[in-house]
Structures are given as C-alpha cells and as structure tokens.
Design brief:
There is one protein chain. This protein is α+β, with helices and mostly antiparallel strands. A hairpin with a 6-residue loop joins strand 7 (392-395) and strand 8. Helix content is 43%, strand content 9%. The protein has 2 domains: 14-264 and 402-441, no CATH class; 276-386, Chitinase A, domain 3 (Roll). The strands form 3 sheets. The protein has a 4-stranded antiparallel sheet, sandwiched between helices. Strands 2-1-9 form a 3-stranded antiparallel sheet.
C-alpha cells in the first residue's frame, strides 16, 4: 500500500473546482507528477494546497527565481492539471477508451472495498483520468524533447519495476481504497455530514457549475457535462463530500489549525525532520533597484556596519532582550524581503539555505549571534533561535495563510492515522469481474 496522500487528490477536475484523491507516485519526470504527488504526504499539507516557494537563497534556485535575496525555499509540489481531459481518439500506442468502457455496464458492481461495492462507471472514471494524465505526459515529452514513451515501458529510468500500464492500475486501486478509507475513518470518529456541511457542499456545486458552464449554467446541464468525462452524479457528490469529511475529521482530532496538538508533538516533528530556526540581517551586495553589483567601497561600508552591530548585539546579556533587539534591526535595516513574512526567523531544513548560511547557523547556540557571514547575496549576521511549535514554516500558495510547525506535525500524524485505516482495507473484484488488462486495449 502506498502512502495516503493527505491532500485529497486532484482528479482532473480543476476546471470545475472539484477535489479528489491522488495515487501512487510513478516518477521519471516532474511532468509525471501530474499523475500523483507523494510530496503532500511528506509535508503534511492541510487541504491539499501546494507549498509556496519563497524567493530562493540556494545558488541553483537563485538562477531560476525572478527575485534574489531571500532565505527560504520549500519543496515544490506537483502542479494540478489545468483542464479536464478530452477523451483521446483511438490512435496507435493509445488506449481505446471506447472499447475499455464497454467492458462492463456503467452501473454494474465490479469490485468492493470495505464491503462497499463499487460500479464499473465509477472505477472507469478514475482509470480514465489517471490514464489521460499519463498520455498527456507522453505528449509533452514528445513535443518538447522528442522522447517517445509507451504503455509497456517501465516507469523507472533504470528499466526496472512497473510499466506505465501497471502503475496506472495500481494508482487506481489505491485511489479506490483511499476513498473508502476516509469514509471509514470519518465514521469511526463520529464525523457525519451535517446540515451545515450539506449547505457548503451545495454552495460548492454552484461554484462548480459556474466554473464549468458560466453564469447561465444549470444543474441539469452540469450533470450532462460530467457524463462526458465519465463522472457520475454519485461520484461527483462523493468526491465533494469527502473534502469536507477530510477537514472536519481533522478538526475533530486536532482543532482548527491544529490548536489542540501538544507542544511536545510539534517540537518532536521539528527535531525529527532536522529543522533549524534562525533570523538574519542581510545587506545585499547589489543595488536593490538596478540589481547591479556594488563597488568595493560600498561593500566595505556594509560589512563594517554589520561588524559593529555584531558587537552591539553580543553585549546584550539577556537572551530575550538580545532577540528583541536583533528582530528590531531586521525590521529596520535588513534587505531580505522575505523577513516581513517570517518576523520570528526562518524555520528550515538542510539544503534550503546557501551552504555558508547553514554552516554558520548550525555552529551557533540558541540566542547566539554569528560573525558576519558572506554569501553570494551579500553580508549576513545570524541569530540562532530555539525551535517553536508555532513557528511559521511555509505559506499556503492559494490562500496565503501561514502554516506552522504545529499544523504540519498534526497533518503528518493525521496522514499516518488515515494510512493505517487504508492499510487495513482490501480491494477485491467481484465474481465474474477482473481488473482490466490495459495493454489489450492499447491500439497498435
């Protein structure tokens, strides 16, 4: 069983605002991560929103970023597909979806998970979206790199392991199990669909109708639209409902924004992941407006200013007073634009910062101030700080809300609980039915 993807996975429904579940990561290229993303499980992201990447401080990221001079970079998560896929024509090397769909009747019960029987139509919808994304990946690699891939090729570059066809089927099985796992988990924790939740689901449906069909769209036309992508009314309702069950189950266990998670659990999360917290004052070696390199005299002046400040700060004996004085100077003179979003310093893992910054911070005791540290960005002085359960670790890229260590720790624990539920479930095909052999539906 693969990791339970905490984000309630996107199943090619972005265009109508519907969230679903992602399956198993099958690698080879970032483009393949449209199929799935395990990063969400690692990061413990609430609600499945992507991690936002701040202005990079690493050398490699600096070349890719439009803005320099920051100190925080979070792992990127897979982008969601931007459109609902059209059903591909029957061409060489592609799946004949019409033939595959006709394997069973749409309403025919073909398998069960946790004693819940599932229809062929609902299974096919997930299979269709997963395979559609893989074929989009094939098209992208052919268009941009001239590389040709086929369903019977192994996913891993080493030429070993599952083929794309096998990986797609495994992904669908995992998704079917995860659908049932969340429903089972919610029921075990006394979470039911309340009237308030029904109102929210109805509001979501209206938003989806408008997104898909415009202001004049009707519910009847919307369901006709869903049929074209093999998404039944029941499955649509189920996917939308699961997103609310997911969040309500989280809130039941940990409270909103994980306020009920003990400090000890959040701190252990940070320690286990190797997080470090440090604030810094940065004076750039370039002009903030033009971006041009400063001359030697200007650089020497900046370095001397920080050297004097180091002495001033080290002369403060009380740790709390030294911290307050340092953070005040961050506000007054630091030229790192990211500092405004992280007023208590950056909480990061190894490999996030440039090497000189990380080495200097690692060598410090809590509340100690470093010597002047030179990096490709300019001159820094660093204040090492103790880990905090409510330290801001990252920001939600869609809402802009801060994610604290407490929230990420709770999500990791939540994901482990959901995974344990999923691991206890088994998918079984009903008598007279079997998992399709994708390769037999690939047109030659």
């Amino acid at each position: 069983m693969k990791k339970f993807i905490i984000g309630l996975l996107v199943l090619c429904l972005v265009v109508i605002g519907v969230l679903g579940l992602t399956g198993t990561s099958i690698g080879k290229s970032p483009a393949v991560q449209h199929i799935v993303s395990e990063n969400a499980a690692e990061a413990g992201v609430i609600g499945g929103a992507d991690s936002e990447t701040e202005i990079q401080v690493t050398e490699e990221a600096a070349a890719e970023s439009e803005t320099t001079a920051s100190v925080e970079a979070q792992p990127e998560q897979a982008d969601a597909p931007s459109t609902v896929p059209d059903e591909p024509a029957v061409v060489s090397g592609r799946i004949n979806y019409e033939a595959l769909y006709s394997l069973y009747e749409p309403e025919e019960k073909v398998l069960k998970v946790n004693e819940k029987e599932e229809t062929w139509g609902d299974y096919f919808y997930i299979l269709f979206t997963q395979c559609g994304q893989i074929e989009q990946y094939f098209d992208s690699m052919a268009a941009y790199y001239g590389m040709q891939f086929h369903w019977d090729e192994p996913v891993e570059e080493e030429g070993e392991g599952d083929t794309y066809a096998e990986a797609a089927l495994e992904s669908v099985d995992n998704l079917m199990i995860q659908l049932s796992a969340l429903e089972k988990f919610a029921a075990e924790n006394g979470v039911e669909v309340s009237e308030e939740m029904r109102d929210m689901i109805e509001a979501q449906k209206k938003e989806d109708i408008t997104s898909a069909l415009g202001e004049e769209g009707t519910e009847e036309a919307f369901y006709e639209y869903l049929e074209k992508i093999h998404l039944s009314r029941d499955m649509y309702d189920r996917i939308v409902t699961q997103n609310y069950l997911y969040q309500e189950s989280f809130n039941r266990l940990y409270g909103e924004n994980a306020v009920n998670l003990p400090d000890e659990a959040a701190l252990k999360f940070l320690e286990d992941k190797g997080y470090v917290t440090a604030a810094h004052i940065l004076l750039l070696n370039t002009d903030e407006e033009s971006g041009e390199k400063l001359d030697e005299a200007a650089l020497a002046e900046k370095k001397a200013e920080l050297e004097a400040l180091v002495s001033e700060l080290r002369a403060i004996e009380d740790d709390t007073e030294r911290k307050e004085a340092f953070l005040q100077k961050v506000t007054e003179i630091s030229e790192d634009p990211g500092s405004a979003r992280y007023p208590e310093g950056y909480t990061y893992t190894a490999g996030t910062m440039v090497p000189e910054f990380e080495a200097a911070a690692e060598a410090l005791e809590d509340y100690a101030v470093s010597d002047v540290v030179e990096t490709s960005y300019g001159y820094h002085i660093i204040l090492r700080l103790p880990l905090s359960p409510d330290a801001i670790v990252e920001f939600n890229s869609s809402s802009g809300d801060a994610r604290t260590a407490r929230m990420l720790a709770a999500n990791q624990e939540y994901g482990e609980k959901l995974q344990a539920t999923a691991d206890a479930l088994k998918l079984e095909w009903l008598p007279g039915h079997e998992q399709p052999d994708l390769m037999s539906f690939v047109a030659e």
